[in-house]
Each structure stands twice: as C-alpha cells, then as structure tokens.
Amino acid sequence: MLDLATRAHDHNFRIDPIIRSLLDTDFYKVLMAQTIFRRHRDVAVTFGINNRTARIRIADEIAEGELREQLDHARTLRLSRGESTWLRGNAFYGKRRMFSAAFLDWLETFRLPEYELAARDGQYELTFHGPWIETTMWEVPALAILNELRSRAVLRDLGKLDLQVLYARAMTRVWEKIERLGRLADLSIADFGTRRRHGFLWQGWCVQAMAEGLGDRFLGTSNCLIALRREVEAVGTNAHELPMVYAALTDDDAALAQAPYDVLADWQQDYEGNLLVALPDTYGTTGFLADAPDWLSAWTGIRIDSKEPIAGGEEAIRFWQSRGADPREKLAIFSDGLDVDSVERIHAHFHGRMRIGYGWGTLLTNDFRGFVRNGRLDPVSIVCKVIEADGRPTVKVSDNPVKAQGPAAEVERYKRVFGVGELAALPVIV
Amino acid sequence: MLDLATRAHDHNFRIDPIIRSLLDTDFYKVLMAQTIFRRHRDVAVTFGINNRTARIRIADEIAEGELREQLDHARTLRLSRGESTWLRGNAFYGKRRMFSAAFLDWLETFRLPEYELAARDGQYELTFHGPWIETTMWEVPALAILNELRSRAVLRDLGKLDLQVLYARAMTRVWEKIERLGRLADLSIADFGTRRRHGFLWQGWCVQAMAEGLGDRFLGTSNCLIALRREVEAVGTNAHELPMVYAALTDDDAALAQAPYDVLADWQQDYEGNLLVALPDTYGTTGFLADAPDWLSAWTGIRIDSKEPIAGGEEAIRFWQSRGADPREKLAIFSDGLDVDSVERIHAHFHGRMRIGYGWGTLLTNDFRGFVRNGRLDPVSIVCKVIEADGRPTVKVSDNPVKAQGPAAEVERYKRVFGVGELAALPVIV
C-alpha cells in the first residue's frame, strides 16, 4: 500500500523550499505595505540582517549555497489565485475589503526583489536594496529562511527516532505552556512567531495547539498563510519600520520630532478599530507619550515592546489617565520576548486594570532549548531591519539600548530631539 | 497526492484487529509450549482472567461486543509461512533449531481454541478450557486485547491534537527513562511488556527506542513478532504456569513437594545456556532454594519475581555461595513491576556482586499515568492464570500473599508442604 506517487513526487523536489507562498509572512507586513503603497512606495530603502546573538556564527552553521537556493526559490513565488481571493474576500478584524483593489492588483504581480549576500566573520551580510514597497516584503521570509536553515542543519544529524523524541519533547513543552496559560482569567493571546520559528510546519502545529487548547482565548496568528489554511484570524498592526523611515526622510529636527506622529496620522486614515494600536517606543516611550496629540488617547491601544513590561504598562495607564481616558477600556499588547513566566507576571500585575493582549513569538514557535547538545537549536535574536531610506541612515533608539540601531552621531541627535535620557539595558533573549 | 487506495483499504477493515499474528505473544510461551507439547499436551487445563486492580471495572470500560470481536479475530489467525520460517531458521539465544520439527509442524496448524466470556460485577469472566497446549496460547493475546481495548476506549474520546500531545508526552517519558537507564554501568535490560502494553504499535516504538538508546545493553524483546520484524533478540524463559500444573497433577504431598524440581529437570532436557534460569517463587523462594538439588547451582541463573528484589537477590547470592558457586558468574533476572527507580536501586545494591538482567514490563510499555483524567490510562494488574488442571485446582503461593491464588484449603496445604511461613504483603503496582 506504499504511495509510490507521493514518494516519487517528493523526491522530485530539487530542494525542500522553506517559503512556499508570499502569504507565508506576517499580517502586519501586508497592512504596512498598503500604507507604504499609498504614500511612499518608491522611497529607496535598504533592509539588512543583524544577528544580535553574535556568539552564534550563523555563516558557519548554514552553507551559503543552501541559503541562496532558498532565497532564490522565494523569489520565484507569486501570489496565487486563492491567496488573492482570501485577501480580497476575507474579513480581517471584523472588516471586509481591508485592502484596496489597487494594492491587491499590484500585490498579484509582485515578486521579491534581488538580494545581496556575503559572509563575513561568521555572519551573513544579507541586504535588500530597492523601492520600499518591494524590500519591505523580504523581512519575514528572510528571517524565516535563516532560522529554519539553522534548524535543518541540526536535524540532518539526527536519526528517525531522535527526531521523534525531539518533536515529542517540543510538543510536550508547548502543550504544558498552553495548559498553564489556560489558567489565566480573561486571556487573549496570539501567535507572533513567524520570523524566528523553528520551521513552517512546526509553527502550524503550534497554532493548532493554541487554537485547540485555548479556544476563543486564542486570538489568531500573525502568519497569513497559516491563518488562511487553518481558518483562524490573521492578526498584527505595525512595526518600527514606519517611524524609522518617516524619521529618516525628514530634513530638520522639528520635522524629525513630528515624524512618529505623522505615521499615526497616516495609519488612522488607512485603518480603524483594533488596528489602531500605537507602537510608542521607537524613539523612547516616555517622550512619545508626553508629546502625543490628544487624539492618540482615542486609539484602541498601545503595544509595549522594548520597555520592561510592568514599567511599560504602568506608563500606558498613566498616559490614558492623564488624557482623561479609562484604562479599563484600553488595550495594551505585550510582545517582547514573551514566555509563560512573563505572561503570568504581567497578567497578575495588570489583570482588571486594562484590557491585555499578548503577542507570543519565538518562545512559542522555537523553544527547543536544551533538546540537543551545545544549544544548537536555541533561538537567536536575529532581526531584519530597515537601515537606509533615500540615502540616509535610519535610526532606532527604543527603550532598551541593546536594541538601538544607526550611526552613533545620528543616535545621539535622535536622543536629543526626542528627549531620551540614559536608558538601562535589558537582556534580550529572543 | 492523497493515497486513495490506502484510505479505501483502511476503511475496509471490519475492525481494527489488536492481535494480527500468532507470534504477537511472549517468547516464553513458545518455549513452554514446546515443553508442554512434548510431555503434557493433552492435560485438560483451564486458564482464566483475574483483574487484581478490582476498583477498575473493566467490563464498564470495554463493550462486550468489541471484546468478542477481538477474541474472535485472534481465533482466525494461523502461523504464516514467514513466521514459521523465522521460528525454524532464526537463532535464539545463540542457538539454531531451538524448536523441533514436530512441534513446529503442529504450531503451523494451530488456532486459538474457544473461549467463555461473561460479565459479572464490572469484571469480565474470561476462561479457556481445553488441552494445555492450546489454552496456554491464550494468555498473552487475551491480556493484550483487554489492555489495548481499555486504551482505545479512552483514545476514542480524544481529538487529533490531544492524541499527538498524549503520545508526545509518552515518548518524552519513555525516552527520559531510557536516558537514565543508559547511565547505569553494565546494564542488560529487555522488554517484557507485551501482555499489559498500551498497544501493539506503542510497544514497537518502545522497543525501537530501547534499541537505539541503549545499543547492545538492550537484550531484546519478549515479543516474538516485534523481534522478527525489528530483527532484535527474542527473550524469555518460563513462568509459574509450569510448576502450578505439575503440582496440581500430583497425587500426594511427597510428589507435590517434588513437582517444582520436576519442572526444572524437564526444562534442562529441553533447553540450555541462558534459558536455564529458574523461577523459584511459585511456592516460596526460601523453601525452594533450601531443598533444591545441587544441579540447580549449575544453572545460569535465577529469576527474582514476587519477592522484594533486594531480599530476593541476597537470597540468590546466599544460595549460590552455599552450593559453592561464584555469584559473580551467576545471573539474576529481576522482572516484577520494574521501573527506573527500582532498577537504579537494584543496580546500586548488586552491581559487581552478580550478573544482573532486567525484564522491564508494564511501566515500559504502558506508562501513561497522569496523562488523562481519572487515571483512565493507568495500567491495571491483570493476569491470565492457569486455574485448573485435569479437574484439580492449581495453586500459587509466591513470596507476596497478594499474588496467592487457589482455594484457601489448598493454599494452606501447599504452604504446609513447602514450609512457607507467614509472608508480608508487598504492594502490586502492575
């Protein structure tokens, strides 16, 4: 009863592609892409990979030829008819026709642009130059490819039984985490784990486990393809990329100081409701909230990312109170390096004082820590960030100096303009 | 790429049979069967099921119709050509032609005989009447059917993801046990878990995990079919059934006192080497060893079963020393309700003082304790024992009164004849 056709077909693949669909990306990339498409599509932008876990020499773990094969394969992909239909016909955050016909017509013709790749000092220098609307689309697939190639390099050395035990342990760990989460009152949690996942199939399993284990307390996944296939909600809003490019494009300090609010002003023209969640930390949360226009307090919520979460949540509550809003009607989304311990701690602290959502990323979809020797399956803190816009360097300050980015002189200028004082470094796990 | 043929074929099964081969039994049944075939094949013997975990109402868990279907299916089985070839051609314990042509010619024609089944007070009364050579073959398949039907009754209520998590946890648990065992010096361990396994496929996985995790420290499996398919050693020697029937057939106290040694005398005519392992506890280990003929000290070893293992091992060492044998050249096989804790304890106590082997049973192949509510997958201590021979009740005393069996008056007579004093009860887990 061997399925000879399946077996022959599987052996016909030249490679085992990691990215098999342009929708295998985070929903917020599509949301941001529409905003970029409408206003800044031709800004020349460079994205680049940065491995913040420098002790892990990724270029020693992954063969350059394999990496090129995967990147090249991703470049062959086009939006399929069914995928386009989903974007056009599905309701996102309860709203249909989230995306304009013009944007989707463009997306149907889109292919990922060229890349530049070199290895240096054990790390890959992987960069993407071109129109913002094109290069922005590389972030998630590039990261997913690098992370899954790392996994595969380890899995290749394991026998069938070792693999079974590995996944048995990983499933057990994820399920026990979900059981713990299930004990929290009024939980709302989503999968944000695409970019640094162990692998695509594994992320799919994690989403299924969340959905079955948590029921309607599981909000959905950031991954469009998994959302489509498993018929769960696609979730996400926006990222540092928008203020970073908006800021880089300004010509003076006054315009720079205004740039993060310009992002919000554009965003609220494009989206509404639960998509109105501001990310305040690009140039320091404290200054951002102090200088924010009053209309920001009418937004649905705030995402608390690089700031220590208890401090960040308290700051959000103070902001809403100072503007006359009731924090219990506001939403705080926590999304930085979460695991069950931190979710429990945050929940114990804030439950009942405001609405809370969790975007659970790498430690949902890539927690194989301790399962193989030498931590070879431990996740790394690798990012793909915009580094240049129209020839000017982009800058990120954030609330954690470990995550700062940009030329030192520009970082100092931004800190001055945004009134950012000295910040204490927080450890970055993932 | 769906395999329509496989799918259609799978749906064509009227039932999903638990026993699919007459070799899906323990090797010691085949060894004992040859001895029975040669000397006592037509003794009328009754076997019966006894659930020592009386609080578990098996007849409430398993539908009688399903049980009958499985028993009926087992009765349709005949030794296949390849199975017969394996018994004829394979080397067992290093020896070829372990089984006579006459015995194998008979086995090729054998089918499991009729059964009698009734439910009473939440338990099944399942008995097998007929020639010893036929009824003896029911023990292992009957137990395996009852245990796997219990598992299935629980699994039926679980979704696909629950099932994945269940097996993920079980694999993780087994593998962690094997990793602990792997740290013991000079380990020799075998799978004895057929009769009370969670299921056939699961036992196969456990055997594979033992083989890959322990290499040549894994001696093999008691299950003939798994040994054949996975090309590992088939292991086992003999059980209480032989002295129980030999004892029941005696006409006076003097013959009764001699019966356990008659078993050994017959056994050493049929087998040699590592198959010469005596099971001393049927009517009390202490008296058995005190009265044993000197030639027993030339046997390879002793199996320590119902006695507390440290006390049983010390008693074996004293026996060998008292007969002038060097315990370091002798083999003690421990086989009663073992799990990793007890193996570690026994090993720490005896390692270096004698050769040690472990027959690991139920807590290898059926340790799903705590994985579902109300302990519904916890193993039960269920046995299938010979209860009558030529119209006379059989008796077992053992070293643990919890495991005693037979009419009270007969048990008392046996205890008097074999000089068994008062025994302390030991808990029976499985």
From TrEMBL, chains A, B:
Residues the record lists as Phosphohistidine modifications: 240
Processing after translation: Transiently phosphorylated on a His residue during the reaction cycle. Phosphorylation strongly increases the affinity for substrates and increases the rate of nicotinate D-ribonucleotide production. Dephosphorylation regenerates the low-affinity form of the enzyme, leading to product release.
Catalytically driven reaction(s): 5-phospho-alpha-D-ribose 1-diphosphate + nicotinate + ATP + H2O = nicotinate beta-D-ribonucleotide + ADP + phosphate + diphosphate
Gene Ontology BP terms: NAD+ biosynthetic process via the salvage pathway
Location of the Nicotinate phosphoribosyltransferase N-terminal domain: 23-147
Pfam families attached to this UniProt entry: NAPRTase (PF04095), NAPRTase_N (PF17767)
Protein name listed in UniProt: Nicotinate phosphoribosyltransferase
Pathway where this protein functions: Cofactor biosynthesis; NAD(+) biosynthesis; nicotinate D-ribonucleotide from nicotinate: step 1/1
Enzyme class (EC, first level): ligase
Keywords, sorted A to Z: Glycosyltransferase, Ligase, Phosphoprotein, Pyridine nucleotide biosynthesis, Transferase
Gene Ontology CC annotations of this record: cytosol
GO molecular function, one term: glycosyltransferase activity
Entry function: Catalyzes the synthesis of beta-nicotinate D-ribonucleotide from nicotinate and 5-phospho-D-ribose 1-phosphate at the expense of ATP.
Family: Belongs to the NAPRTase family.
E.C. number(s) listed in UniProt: 6.3.4.21
Domain Nicotinate/nicotinamide phosphoribosyltransferase residues, every copy: 188-422
